Structure formats: structure tokens, C-alpha cells
Amino acid sequence: MAKHLILVAGNIGAGKTSLTERLAARLGWQAAYESVADNPYLADFYKDMRVWSFHLQIFFLGHRAVQHRTLAAAPTSAIIDRSIYEDGYVFARALYQLGNMTERDYYAYRRLFELVVNGLPAPALLLYLQASVPTLVHRIRNRSRDIEAGITADYLALLDSFYEDWLADFDLCPVLTIPADRLDFVRRRDHLEVIVERIEDKLAGKEVVVFPTNC
Hints:
single chain, about 220 residues, alpha/beta, Rossmann fold, five-stranded parallel β-sheet, 8 helices, about 55% helix, globular
């Protein structure tokens, strides 16, 4: 298989990290993940979102831009857990919509965001993990992360609507939508293999890529 840069996108709790880990191991790809443990703004952001949202989004923008560009230039295929595009089109938009980022900061961020992403090499494929809000809520509760304690179904539904808006106009590369409600790629190797097959089909240029209904 030729060298590719693959991005994994999806709402909170959709299974991005789990899928990234398994695809990287299965296909021998280099994997990259979100910056959480070494993020200097995350703890402050959760204490006061209005004060720290702009700083956090700028940090993520720089981190993901370097990650994207570095892996695009790497000699082997790579897969990234969460794309840089989601930051601007989904999460920063949600912060602004909910009043946690001022209009001034939001439009300053968006100008910089557009400048940065327009200079990035296009990915080969975007994997979109699509899961219902009840599924997302269930998974978030099961993993019991302190920083996710305040995430509500309404917030997840808002993010979901922004994902739909973003993907409706996304044309940088092919998109493979993975039905994450019914594909248990964590516990079932056969489900992971179905995803691998569909990825290979998509990278080979096949336009009609369907997941079996009996998964």
C-alpha cells in the first residue's frame, strides 16, 4: 500500500483513540494523538472556559498543525487521532455559540485557523466515526474521566450538528463514515477487519463503500 496520511474524526466518545490505536497496530502505521497530559491550558480551561478558551484553541491549532505537517512528510503512512479541522469547524464554533469565547476572540482565531489549514497538505482519507448521542453518553459515563463529568447530551447534540455542517462541505479528501453504534472494533476483531477492508477500498478509489448491515 502506498504511503498515506489518515485522519480520524468524530464526536467525544465516538471511539477515535481506540480505532487509531488498533488501525496503527494492524496496518503498521505511525500514530499520533491529542495533546492532553502535556497541555498547559487544559486544567485552567476547565476551571474557567471564558477566560482560557482562546488560549486553549491557539495551543491546539499550533500542536495539530505541527503534527499534521510532520506526519504528512514522514516516510511511512500515519494516522492522527482527531483532525485539525474539527478544532475550527466544530469545537471553537461550539465555544462561541455557548458564550465561552467572545466574538472578538472567535473571529481572530478563525482568521488564523484558515491561514494555517490552507497551508497544510491534504490528507488521503478522513475516517468519520458516527455515533448516536445516547451511545456517546453511555461511553463517556463508562470511562468516568473527571474532565468529562460536565458533558451533557445537549452539548453532544450541538457538536453533532456542527459535524454535519462541516462534513457537508468537506472536500479535501474522501470521507469514510464508520457506523460506530454497531461496529465494536475494540472487542471484535472481525469488525476491525471490516473497517480495514473498507479503508483499503476507499484508498484504492472505490466510490461505493458499504458496511454490512449484519455487523
